[in-house]
Amino acid sequence: NRWQYLPVKLLLQTCHFEWWCWRIIMTKLMEWLTGAVLILGPWSAVVTNTIQNEFTKQYYMEILLFPVFLVAVFGLVSIAVIAYRVYTFNDCQEAAEELQQQIKEAKADLAKKGLKLD
Question: Which residue has the higher pLDDT, 26 or 32?
Protein backbone atom coordinates (compact mmCIF):
# COMPACT_ATOMS: atom_id res chain seq x y z
CA ASN A 1 0.00 0.00 0.00
CA ARG A 2 1.51 3.32 -1.02
CA TRP A 3 -0.21 5.27 1.83
CA GLN A 4 1.15 3.07 4.61
CA TYR A 5 3.20 5.78 6.28
CA LEU A 6 1.49 7.59 9.17
CA PRO A 7 2.41 11.19 8.20
CA VAL A 8 0.93 10.67 4.74
CA LYS A 9 -2.22 9.15 6.25
CA LEU A 10 -2.59 12.07 8.66
CA LEU A 11 -2.11 14.54 5.82
CA LEU A 12 -4.73 12.80 3.72
CA GLN A 13 -7.19 12.70 6.60
CA THR A 14 -6.82 16.39 7.47
CA CYS A 15 -6.52 17.83 3.95
CA HIS A 16 -8.65 17.40 0.88
CA PHE A 17 -6.65 16.76 -2.27
CA GLU A 18 -7.96 17.65 -5.65
CA TRP A 19 -5.83 15.32 -7.75
CA TRP A 20 -6.49 17.10 -11.03
CA CYS A 21 -4.81 20.32 -9.88
CA TRP A 22 -2.76 19.22 -6.83
CA ARG A 23 -4.29 21.85 -4.60
CA ILE A 24 -4.58 21.30 -0.86
CA ILE A 25 -7.58 22.79 0.93
CA MET A 26 -6.62 23.54 4.54
CA THR A 27 -8.90 22.49 7.37
CA LYS A 28 -9.00 24.33 10.70
CA LEU A 29 -6.73 21.67 12.21
CA MET A 30 -4.11 22.27 9.53
CA GLU A 31 -4.37 26.05 10.04
CA TRP A 32 -3.77 25.70 13.80
CA LEU A 33 -0.93 23.21 13.30
CA THR A 34 0.73 25.49 10.73
CA GLY A 35 0.49 28.45 13.12
CA ALA A 36 1.86 26.38 15.99
CA VAL A 37 4.81 25.19 13.92
CA LEU A 38 5.54 28.72 12.66
CA ILE A 39 5.55 30.09 16.23
CA LEU A 40 6.96 27.20 18.25
CA GLY A 41 9.63 26.19 15.72
CA PRO A 42 11.75 29.35 15.99
CA TRP A 43 10.97 29.60 19.72
CA SER A 44 12.28 26.10 20.39
CA ALA A 45 15.38 26.82 18.29
CA VAL A 46 16.14 29.86 20.44
CA VAL A 47 15.41 28.08 23.73
CA THR A 48 17.65 25.13 22.85
CA ASN A 49 20.41 27.57 21.80
CA THR A 50 20.37 26.40 18.19
CA ILE A 51 20.08 30.06 17.20
CA GLN A 52 22.47 32.32 19.09
CA ASN A 53 22.95 36.02 18.59
CA GLU A 54 23.09 39.16 20.70
CA PHE A 55 19.32 39.71 20.56
CA THR A 56 18.46 36.22 21.81
CA LYS A 57 21.05 36.48 24.59
CA GLN A 58 19.73 39.86 25.72
CA TYR A 59 16.02 38.91 25.65
CA TYR A 60 16.30 35.21 26.57
CA MET A 61 13.85 35.39 29.51
CA GLU A 62 11.21 37.21 27.43
CA ILE A 63 11.60 34.69 24.62
CA LEU A 64 11.36 31.84 27.12
CA LEU A 65 8.03 33.19 28.46
CA PHE A 66 6.61 34.00 25.01
CA PRO A 67 4.24 30.94 24.85
CA VAL A 68 2.82 31.85 28.28
CA PHE A 69 2.23 35.38 27.01
CA LEU A 70 0.47 34.01 23.91
CA VAL A 71 -1.83 31.81 26.01
CA ALA A 72 -2.67 34.76 28.29
CA VAL A 73 -3.44 37.03 25.32
CA PHE A 74 -5.54 34.29 23.72
CA GLY A 75 -7.53 33.95 26.96
CA LEU A 76 -8.09 37.71 27.25
CA VAL A 77 -9.20 37.99 23.63
CA SER A 78 -11.55 35.04 24.09
CA ILE A 79 -13.10 36.63 27.18
CA ALA A 80 -13.48 39.94 25.33
CA VAL A 81 -15.17 38.27 22.36
CA ILE A 82 -17.57 36.34 24.60
CA ALA A 83 -18.40 39.46 26.64
CA TYR A 84 -19.02 41.51 23.48
CA ARG A 85 -21.27 38.85 21.96
CA VAL A 86 -23.26 38.48 25.18
CA TYR A 87 -23.60 42.28 25.40
CA THR A 88 -24.83 42.60 21.80
CA PHE A 89 -27.07 39.52 21.91
CA ASN A 90 -30.49 40.47 20.57
CA ASP A 91 -33.58 39.95 22.68
CA CYS A 92 -36.40 38.40 20.72
CA GLN A 93 -39.55 39.70 22.39
CA GLU A 94 -41.84 38.18 19.76
CA ALA A 95 -40.26 34.76 20.16
CA ALA A 96 -40.47 35.01 23.96
CA GLU A 97 -44.16 35.93 23.80
CA GLU A 98 -44.85 33.11 21.34
CA LEU A 99 -43.05 30.64 23.60
CA GLN A 100 -45.03 31.81 26.65
CA GLN A 101 -48.26 31.38 24.66
CA GLN A 102 -47.25 27.86 23.62
CA ILE A 103 -46.48 27.01 27.26
CA LYS A 104 -49.93 28.21 28.32
CA GLU A 105 -51.56 26.17 25.55
CA ALA A 106 -49.57 23.08 26.52
CA LYS A 107 -50.52 23.47 30.19
CA ALA A 108 -54.19 23.88 29.25
CA ASP A 109 -54.03 20.81 27.00
CA LEU A 110 -52.38 18.74 29.73
CA ALA A 111 -54.94 19.97 32.29
CA LYS A 112 -57.73 18.74 29.99
CA LYS A 113 -56.05 15.33 29.94
CA GLY A 114 -55.95 15.23 33.74
CA LEU A 115 -52.34 16.20 34.43
CA LYS A 116 -51.98 18.94 37.03
CA LEU A 117 -48.99 21.25 36.81
CA ASP A 118 -47.99 23.82 39.40
Answer: 32
